Amino acid sequence: MSETSAPPAAPDRTRMPDLNWSDAHRAQLQMRYSDIDTNHHVNNGRYGEYLENARIQLMHDVGLWGEGERAVLARMEMDYVQEIRWGQALVVESLIEKIGRSSWTVVARILADGMPCAFARTVIVRVNAEHRPEPIPDGVREALRPLMVRG
């Protein structure tokens, strides 16, 4: 079999948690030709950009993107499960895993043509104008609550 006709490998499910993804926020993303590297797949550095764009869409969609709203990325971890190739339709699904005093944790998976390709966990910290952590207001907690991971 040639490299182009080989069926895609099944994703490693041990690195892709089985969560309530049907409740997730969905962000459809546009792949750019410049995302492709010399191996003819999406460069791994672009995955972080995809997740960033999805987080911004999530924050906008729940009303946390506006004047006075400030948040910074404090941590990101990612498991790459399967490559993404040129022309595949990209969707990032995101859930809120935890809401703390001044931070919230987002778990997300990147899908290409509906196939899970990466899983990420990010910690976002709410900050004030001086970029110091500040408590998450009740309104923000309520905006994020519908996207919570359920056990």
From TrEMBL:
This is Acyl-CoA thioester hydrolase. Pfam families: 4HBT_2. The keyword ATP-binding does not apply. Keywords: Hydrolase. It is an enzyme of class 3 (hydrolase). PANTHER family: 4-HYDROXYBENZOYL-COA THIOESTERASE FAMILY MEMBER, LONG-CHAIN ACYL-COA THIOESTERASE FADM. The lineage of its organism: Bacteria, Thermotogati, Deinococcota, Deinococci, Deinococcales. SUPFAM superfamilies: Thioesterase/thiol ester dehydrase-isomerase. It comes from Deinococcus enclensis. InterPro entries: 4-hydroxybenzoyl-CoA_TE, HotDog_dom_sf. GO terms for molecular function: hydrolase activity. Its EC number is 3.1.2.-. It comes from the Bacteria.
